Amino acid sequence: MKQFGEIKTDMMHMKSSVIYTGPSMNPTLRQGDIVEIISAEKTVIIPGDIIYFLNQKNTRVIHRVIKHTENGYITKGDNNKEVDSTCVTPDQIIGKVISVHRKEAQYTVHGGMLGRATAVLFSLRKKALMLIGLFVRDAYYFLIDTGFIQRYIPSYLKPKHVLFQTKADTYHQKLILFQKEIGRYDTCSGTWKILPPFGLLIPNEIKYNN
Question: Taking CA atoms, which of 17, 30, 144, 207 is between 20 and 30 Å from 11?
Fold first, then answer.
């Protein structure tokens, strides 16, 4: 939940603009977007619309309407996994989002059926990216374990295994590539902490025989 700062009000057309903050409506809305709101008095709210409202903690929130029930509107951020914990009653609604200004461009924010379809597509996209991420991660660790890439990389891409002595006369093992530290041996856990994707370049005898 975020507090938004109002920057412009058009009383004649019952419109206002606020600066959006927070990640809950990504990618529909992004941090720093200027969001145009039409007053709730001048529009009808239906599922799929993005509304600007005061929650029970008196915090201003911008979320999408998922469903209309006898208790009020069920809302959810496009980037959130779960719906909001409480319903939004009509008297809590300040207005409906109709457009967004991002950098030099202005975009129409769709509501209704098109808005609901947009939210579903964003949700499917997020799940697909998560699955791709899991696949890439598994493939990454598989390539590390097989040592396939390590056998074919040129010598200048092979990290240097360096022992550093500190002022306290303790020693630290590091892996250096192009004068950049890409890994460090953790004496407490007895394992290497290696920045991805550099694990692909590290010989298994370094990672596992310490």
Answer: 30
How do the residues of the chain divide into helix, strand and coil, expressed in percent and rounded to 5?
25, 35, 40
Measure CA 6 to chain center.
24
What is the C-alpha separation between 128 and 20, in angstroms, rounded? 26
Instruction: Assign 180 to helix, strand or coil.
Output: strand
Backbone phi and psi for residue 178, each to the nearest 5 degrees, phi listed first? 55, 45
Q: Count of CB atoms within 10 A of residue 15's CB?
A: 17
| Both structure tokens of 84 | 């909001």
Position 151 scores a pLDDT of 79
| Sequence spans of domains, the chain | 5-124, 155-208
Compute mean pLDDT per 10 residues along the chain, 210 residues long, and list them.
Answer: 52 77 91 93 92 93 95 94 93 95 88 86 79 82 81 81 75 84 84 84 62
User: What's residue 1's pLDDT?
Assistant: 42
Q: Look up residue 105 and give its DSSP letter.
A: E
pLDDT of residue 126: 77
**AA identity, residue 155:** S
Distances in Å between the Cα of 108 and the Cα atoms of 28, 29, 98, 164, 193 are 11, 11, 6, 57, 46
CATH superfamily name and code, 5-124? Umud Fragment, subunit A (2.10.109.10)
